[in-house]
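Honest question from a wet-lab person: if I give you the sequences of every part of a complex, can you actually get the arrangement of the whole thing, not just the pieces? Trying it with mine:
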Amino acid sequence: MNIKQLVPSIVIVVMVSAPVLAASDQGNLLEETMHSSGKIYVVVAVVTVLLLAVFGYLIALDRRLKRLENKKTDKR
Amino acid sequence: MRGLWWKIGSAILVIYSVFLGLLAPLNPGIKTVDPAQLNNGGTTVIITGYNSHFADAAQSQQVWLTNGDEIFCAYEYQVVDNTHIRATFSIYQDISEAFFDLYVHNAVDGTMHLPDAFLQNAMEVSLKPDKIEPCLTALAEADRGFGFPNQPILNETIRNLLFHVPSWFAMILIMAVSFGYSIVHLRHSRLDADAAAANAARVGLLFAFIGLATGMIWARFTWGAWWVNDRRLNGAAVATLIYLAYFVLRSSVNEEQKAARLAGVYNIFAFVMMLLFVMVWPRLGADSLHPGVGGNPAFNQYDLDDNLRLVFYPAVLGWMGMSLWIFQLQNRMDRLRRIADEH
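Yes, you can. This is the full assembly:
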């Protein structure tokens, strides 16, 4: 177990939420969108973060499994 | 198929909760009033509704204010369309409280309520207000079918309850799993149990980060800030940091057996601290923006709403199952890695 293996999950969540964070300072467009239609876009953002984080974690897992598989076949 | 049923079950529960959580309509409610102040004398305001049927139900419409025990009916009002009413309130009396609550009732929407809708301006606030004759006011639920409660400020974002809160439930469950494996490791010196504890904590951290990120987005557009100084938020952040420290500790000791033993002991401490910071400490505080502080779990405010409950509990179960599933995958992968390293 290595601290490096934690990096993917942190990176995933930061990458997913960073655009929202960055755009919020750039003016009112995002603010207006988020507050329109009863703030439904806040829900959209939250669901997107949730699903992207889970899928991102699974992709990271998949990649590590792939590396493991490659290593195994190399030895044979 | 053996061992797969609970994974399919949780996937179905998650799909069900996302589907219904996004598609069920929001109950009618009052969104805003403009201006949000009432003057001594007559004031005309525009009342904006959400999912409301002001025009369709104009016949049965009633508009009134309450201030303490007193009731003030609209002096006159005019329905503009389904979501707008122009109302005039005429208030000369002494009142007992600084804020007026607004009620709009009609046969289609039932009774809609906006607490603290208007601030008084240039009125006499006295402990002994004039008595006012109550006008016709009806408080009743209309038969509206399935819908989520329309809370002031929250509006549609009440749906986030189904995505933000279950991730914390999943995190607590998976940290309990981690705690269990740490105990197994400490009792029987099984290195595979230690690896399982670490893997569970990793998945737990994923859900903690999801919980923090979704909570921050939700807070930004309802409370107006990414982070507020609140026990519930700070407690969650501290709990996350405690588990980050767990991984720092693991990687800082080179000897495998020693690292596993230290991590196991720390994990027991971490789990207890996490429970204290997430479950106990926030409830000791006074007022909080976050629901559930000073009461029981995080949804006592919505406890009465059966519709929300019908989606919330399956969502919690579903995401708990998903977290166990991800943990299992992670752990199986890790076992393969360890076997490969040995050869």
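Two things worth pointing out. The radius of gyration of chain B is 26 Å. Chain B is about 50% helix and 20% strand.
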